Amino acid sequence: MAVPNIKLNSGYEMPQVGFGLWKVDNATCADTVYNAIKAGYRLFDGACDYGNEVECGQGVARAIKDGLVRREDLFIVSKLWNTFHDGERVEPIARKQLADWGVDYFDLYLIHFPVALAYVDPAVRYPPGWHYDGVSEVRTSRASIQETWAAMERLVDAGLARSIGVSNFQAQLLYDLLRYARVPPATLQIEHHPYLVQPELVRLAQHEGVAVTAYSSFGPASFQEFNMEHATALTPLTEEQTVARIAQRHGKSPAQVLLRWSTQRGLAVIPKSSSEARMAQNLDCTAWSLSDDDIAAISALDKKTRFNQPSNYFPTEKLWIFG
């Protein structure tokens, strides 16, 4: 199944539909990546914080060895974690992540969050997570986004990343970054689903030539295991009446409709599934169209409800140390 590409401002092309690797279990990750490649996925969205990059790389290596793909056929994405924002920390950790994947360059490397935390040596704990002590202490770094971005640009200069971008940035930070960036961000990755449409942010990014990638396209489904009250209280989007009605009319699954709602509006998506049948279904979200009324009805579900934000990961009795 042919997947269209999005032309990035870096000159490279990125598949519009990729495979997300958040919460893919280490025990099955290599097989999942291998099977996703067999199903036709070429973009894989990983991160230091997911803790499974070694296994992702094993799946990629097996697929290349078996002749399913070449390295140049793949678009591998990873992310810089918060504890490595200090300028001198960026290249060493990027090189470690490349070694974990078993590749020489990332097609896209993102700042994961606009949150700078104190450095944690990978030899002490990896991935470091949110807490300096691994329990509850939140210790910040003084690194600015500008300092971190300059180090990201040096990754491009060194050939370690072909494109660079940001994740979880809001409009003000993105607009500020665009003012001083020597290498502009190629993509903005954000939580985006019908309960959190963020039309102004999407419009700003696209106007500035920054491609937008949507994660958590199925809304609260990814977050219910964390016992977030607002996640468990909302109707799962795959069961929401408007989405279900539109899916039935088009002869598609609700998941396909949710993904098509994004791709038809020019966004990239990164769903995941361990089921090979659902992998194929999710990949089929570009070759058919929703009506304008369908798009409007789904967008009207917006509750401005965000599930993924740093405060989710800090206990009530958190200890902050600013340094």
Automatic annotation (TrEMBL):
GO terms for molecular function: D-xylose reductase (NADPH) activity. Pfam families: Aldo_ket_red (PF00248). It comes from the Eukaryota. Gene3D superfamilies: NADP-dependent oxidoreductase domain. The active site is at residue 50. InterPro entries: AKR, AKR2D, Aldo/ket_reductase_CS, NAD(P)_OxRdtase_dom_sf, NADP_OxRdtase_dom. Residues 18-302 form the NADP-dependent oxidoreductase domain. Keywords: Carbohydrate metabolism, NAD, NADP, Oxidoreductase, Xylose metabolism. GO terms for biological process: D-xylose catabolic process. Transmembrane segments: none annotated. Pathway: Carbohydrate metabolism; D-xylose degradation. SUPFAM superfamilies: NAD(P)-linked oxidoreductase. Substrate binds at residue 112. The record marks 79 as: Lowers pKa of active site Tyr. Belongs to the aldo/keto reductase family. This is NADP-dependent oxidoreductase domain-containing protein. It comes from Thyridium curvatum.
